[in-house]
Amino acid sequence: MGPDISSKLVGRGQGLFAQAAQDEMALLMAQNFVFLEGKYNGSTITVLGRNPILATVRELPIVGGSGVFRFASGYVQARTYSFDLNTLDATVEYNVYVLHH
C-alpha cells in the first residue's frame, strides 16, 4: 500500500533488467506487477521498456497483462522514492495508467 516495509503487501514486482546504454544509467526492463489481493488477485500487468534511472520521472509502456488486465495497454510513471548507496537497494513508486477490456 505504501513505501514502508511494514505496509500491507498487495502485489509483487517480478522481472529482469539489463544495462541499456553506454553513456548514461539506463536499463531495459521487463517487469510484471503481480497482484495478490482483492478483485485483482492473480492478475498481472506487464511493462517492457527503457528506464533512464537518474531521470526524476520515467515513463515505460504497458505491453499486456493477464486475468482482469487481459489486453491491457497504457503506461507507468516511475519515481525513485529512496535509494541506499551502501546496499544499492531502491524503493520506486510506480503510478500505473492502464486500459483493459
Automatic annotation (TrEMBL):
Q: Please tell me one Gene Ontology term that the record gives under cellular component.
A: apoplast
Span-the-membrane segments of this chain are none
Classify the main location. Answer: secreted
- Subcellular location(s) per record: Secreted, Extracellular space, Apoplast
**What biological-process GO terms show up in the record?**
phenylpropanoid biosynthetic process
Source organism, top-level taxon: Eukaryota
Q: Keywords in alphabetical order, please.
A: Apoplast, Secreted
Role this protein plays: Dirigent proteins impart stereoselectivity on the phenoxy radical-coupling reaction, yielding optically active lignans from two molecules of coniferyl alcohol in the biosynthesis of lignans, flavonolignans, and alkaloids and thus plays a central role in plant secondary metabolism.
Q: Which PANTHER family match?
A: NUCLEOPORIN-RELATED
- Record text on subunit structure and interactions: Homodimer.
Family under the similarity heading: Belongs to the plant dirigent protein family.
The protein's name: Dirigent protein
Organism, as annotated: Punica granatum
